[in-house]
Amino acid sequence: MSPSTYEFIGGTQDNGTNRSPRLPEFDSRWMMVVGGDGFDCVWDKTNPLIVYATLYYSRILKSIDGGYIFNSINNGLPESNIFHTPLAMDPKNSEKLFTWGENNAVQTE
């Protein structure tokens, strides 16, 4: 959930990563913002314009416009054979992300 508005983002395997409209209702249409197999997402708690999404095999994407346009930020992180890409944000430092790779190794971005 966005830290400043009533908006949501979530990965849906086989159905991409989808973003809600502001103030969604029961029948609101969500927008697919990343195609493919969507997984974990995190919204920066200090900057509502920064949102992260993941795809299969340790692919991490970043949005700087509130979750509408995403670009890859892997910056040398090795691609893994793990299909689901877990993602967590350090609760004390929103610029530090954690994911897990081969052999359960923790990787930071």
Short description:
This protein is an all-beta fold and 109 residues long. The protein has no helices and 10 strands.
What would the keywords be for this entry?
109 residues, four-stranded antiparallel β-sheet, three-stranded antiparallel β-sheet, 10 strands, 36% strand, globular
Q: Quaternary state, please?
A: single chain
Helical percentage: under 10%
Number of helices: 0
Poorly predicted regions: none
Order of helices and strands: EEEEEEEEEE
Indicate the topology.
Layout: E1 9-11, E2 17-19, E3 31-34, E4 41-43, E5 51-55, E6 59-63, E7 71-72, E8 88-90, E9 93-100, E10 106-108
Antiparallel strand pairs: 1-2, 2-3, 4-5, 5-6, 6-7, 8-9, 9-10
Notes on the protein architecture:
This protein has 109 residues and is mostly beta strands. The chain has no helices and ten strands. β9 and β10 form a beta hairpin.
